[in-house]
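Task 17 of the worksheet. Students: predict the tertiary structure of the chain below and write it out as structure tokens. Keep your answer in the requested format; marks are given for formatting as well as content.
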Amino acid sequence: MPRTWEERFGTEIVCVGHDTLEFEVTRSPVTREQYLYCPDIVDQGVGDVLPLAATLLGASKWFFWWD
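Model answer:
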């Protein structure tokens, strides 16, 4: 998935942890890409896709976290 994001959204991995990933993003998506790849950020974090989407619109970073 991250390779296709590089082509589609201009992402670049900037940080890797044992349970996290962080990307720089040049073209923000308008789909549920992040949630589909990492549901923990919603299911155990913000609780709904809409608040997550609001923070991602126009954002230059994506953050992924798994338990």
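Marker's comment: The chain has a mean pLDDT of 87. The longest helix spans residues 2-9.
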